[in-house]
Design brief:
Strand order of the largest sheet of chain A: 3-2-1-4-20-19-18
Helix content of chain A: 25-40%
Radius of gyration of chain A: 24 Å
CATH class of the largest domain in chain A: Alpha Beta
Largest interface: A-B, 44 and 42 residues
Number of domains of chain A: 2
CATH architecture of the largest domain in chain A: 3-Layer(aba) Sandwich
Structural class of chain A: alpha/beta
Distance between the termini of chain B: 31 Å
Oligomer: heterodimer
Radius of gyration of chain B: 18 Å
Number of strands of chain B: 5
CATH class of chain B: Alpha Beta
CATH topology of the largest domain in chain A: Rossmann fold
Helix content of chain B: 40-55%
Order of helices and strands of chain B: HEHEEHHHEEH
CATH superfamily of chain B: CBS-domain
């Protein structure tokens, strides 16, 4: 018996409709030699994962990747089951009895902690919650951030940290032209934030942000950028690494930061200070259980055995008087109910995308993973494409070798029936496209890309009665 | 990208051998796992050396009776160790420069995995491919 024919299509469930999920679907559906059915599940009614809920609202060009996802979704053998959660509405064993293969692409849904005293004081938040809030993720709709504070520390210098700092520095007029969630726009309109600190543990040459991002920080309408000259001087280790690696982008990055260090303040109402070679050692209590400051240790750079440059704390400390702290020191995967997890790396236990049995360390037939929940939170959106290709190659190799799940009901109707039974209000891709049109129409009158629906019941109400019985 | 992102997709097994085991046993382990090198560890799982297929080939070319030799007689003791947080850029450079094919990775003194030069090259290629793809998408689909 061979799977992947018109008589017996290879039936695949993909769990998580972010970039990795779409790339897995794309790699499977574009095979000319195989007939594959892909059902893409997401716990939210809306697809696109972090492209919708993570990428900053003032970076619309990056969000344009969704056009490629919509093309995938247009394939006749693709279906979307939105608003259907693994472990709540359907279980792994439900999927096992309806599909030959299951792929987990749920991303890294939580943030890493700093593990320092005071981290959980009032006013100390994961940056990812702030990001999900301003992007209108329904789960974070009711978060509250005390924007009456004048000084804010953002810990980290990766893309998320830079996004948070930039959004805090933007004017309401600038934000109103984006698709930032309405509730966030209203809260940020009342913001009294004057001073934002971005805190990097290593030096300028090691900062994860890209050159376009750091240039953007120097072109903000309402904020002066401040850089401490000594902190962006190139140390011998970093200079050697840039030279040896012929790293022109790195040299440029340091050059941009050094040019900021020479800038004189122009009296803009806000100030964005980018600091390097500092690590938080404690978030300080203001006496009332809320953030009153952050204590930093100064670092120096050392090279590891492999030549990787690392931060080493010195005995010099300082304190910044901030009232709000956002930590952005990395994401981390969340275990899925019924799926083996590798706690050390915070990913689904896998080898090149094949999910492993935790006892035998051998692949579990028919179960796979891709994206951040497979390799950890690294890379840009496009990095998930080669990652998904590796997983799909393993899937097709196993399917050809006859190693798949043995579903009792390998039938599209049966799967749809199951979903309809568990979540009668599930969202199809056609529903989503209609919802998106409504968002875009709402935005048109305001001159912004879209006005997002940010509550699930609003989304369902907007779609009206979709008779599925 | 760092070493952790490579180890994350390698399961959590690390194939090791002890210094007092024989080359015959080592070859069996290499063949069974289809790999090119073994980390030699002490009783506390601390790496003390590395034994690669090349070490064995080199010895066999001199003397065909390599099978009964001990791992400790052929292993390389001059170890370069990586950490999970090490950048792949630096790691790749060091491996090429010092002609290291396999890098044991330790965390808090304990062996947590091994990366090969092939792993590093593939991860970097995927990273660049991903960046190019993302930029192309922005240029082609964006701009409005």
């Amino acid at each position: 018996m061979s799977l992947g024919t018109l008589e017996e299509p290879l039936r695949v469930a993909v769990v998580g409709a972010g970039p990795a999920g779409f790339y897995v679907a794309e790699h499977l559906l574009r095979r000319a030699d195989l007939v594959v059915d892909v059902d893409l599940f997401d716990r939210l009614p809306t697809p696109y994962g972090l492209v919708r809920a993570g990428v900053a609202p003032d970076h619309q060009k990056i969000k344009a990747v969704t056009a490629a996802f919509d093309k995938v979704a247009g394939h006749p053998r693709f279906r979307f089951f939105g608003g259907v959660e693994l472990g709540k509405d359907v279980s792994v064993s439900d999927l096992r009895s309806h599909y030959h293969q299951i792929v987990y692409t749920t991303g890294a849904q939580t943030d890493r902690r700093m593990d320092i005293p005071g981290e959980d004081l009032l006013g100390s938040h994961p940056a990812t919650e702030f990001v999900a809030w301003y992007n209108g993720h329904p789960d974070y709709r009711d978060c509250h951030f005390d924007l009456s504070q004048e000084r804010v520390a953002v810990v980290g210098v990766g893309n998320v940290a830079v996004d948070v700092a930039r959004i805090l520095c933007r004017t309401p007029e600038e934000l109103a032209r984006t698709d930032i969630a309405d509730h966030a726009l209203e809260a940020l309109r009342l913001s009294r934030v004057k001073e934002v600190y971005l805190l990097g543990r290593r030096g300028a040459a090691q900062a994860a942000f890209t050159n376009p991002e750091i240039k953007e920080l120097g072109e903000l309408e309402a904020a002066d950028i401040v850089v401490v000259p000594e902190e962006v001087e190139l140390d011998p280790l970093s200079r050697e690494a840039l030279d040896k690696g012929n790293d022109r982008a790195g040299v440029k990055k340091v050059g941009i930061l050094q040019s900021y260090a020479r800038r004189a303040p122009t009296g803009r109402p806000r100030r964005l200070t980018v600091r390097f070679l500092v690590s938080p050692v404690a978030v300080l209590d203001n006496g009332a259980g809320a953030v009153g400051g952050i204590r930093l240790v100064r670092n120096r750079l050392v090279a590891s055995a492999t030549g990787a440059i690392q931060a080493q704390p010195t005995d010099r400390f300082e304190e910044l008087p901030v009232g709000l702290v956002f930590r952005s020191v990395g994401y981390r995967g969340v275990p899925l109910p019924g799926v083996p997890f590798d706690d050390k790396w915070g990913v689904v236990l896998n080898e090149k995308g094949r999910v492993l049995d935790p006892e035998t360390k051998q692949p579990l037939a028919g179960e796979y993973t891709a994206g951040w929940i497979k390799r950890g939170p690294t890379g840009v959106i496009g990095t998930n494409k080669p990652d998904a290709a590796e997983t799909v190659a393993a899937m097709l190799e196993d399917a050809a070798a006859g190693s798949t799940l043995s579903p009792v009901e390998a039938d599209p109707e049966a799967a749809e029936h199951l979903v309809r039974q568990r979540r009668p209000d599930y969202i199809t891709y056609a529903d989503w496209l209609r919802l998106e049109d409504l968002e875009i129409v709402r935005g048109r009158s305001r001159g912004c890309p879209r006005v997002k629906f940010t509550r699930v019941h609003e989304m369902l109400a907007a779609l009206g009665n979709r008779n599925r019985s | 990208m760092n070493i952790a992102s490579i180890l994350a997709t390698k399961g959590d097994k690390v194939v090791t051998i002890r210094a007092e085991q024989s080359i015959r046993e080592a070859l069996g382990v290499l063949a069974r796992h289809n790999i090119g090198a073994l980390v030699v560890v002490d009783a506390g799982m601390r790496p003390i050396g590395i034994l690669s297929e090349r070490d064995i080939v080199r010895a066999a070319a001199q003397d065909e009776k390599v099978f009964p030799l001990l791992v400790s007689q052929l292993m390389t003791r001059d170890l370069v160790l990586g950490g999970p947080g090490d950048d792949l850029g630096a790691v790749g450079q060091t491996m090429v420069q010092r002609r290291i094919r396999h890098l044991p990775v330790v965390d808090g003194g304990k062996l947590v995995g091994m990366v090969s030069i092939g792993d590093v090259v593939k991860a970097q290629r995927d990273q660049y491919q991903g960046e190019v793809d993302t930029l192309q998408t922005i240029v082609m689909e964006g701009g409005h």
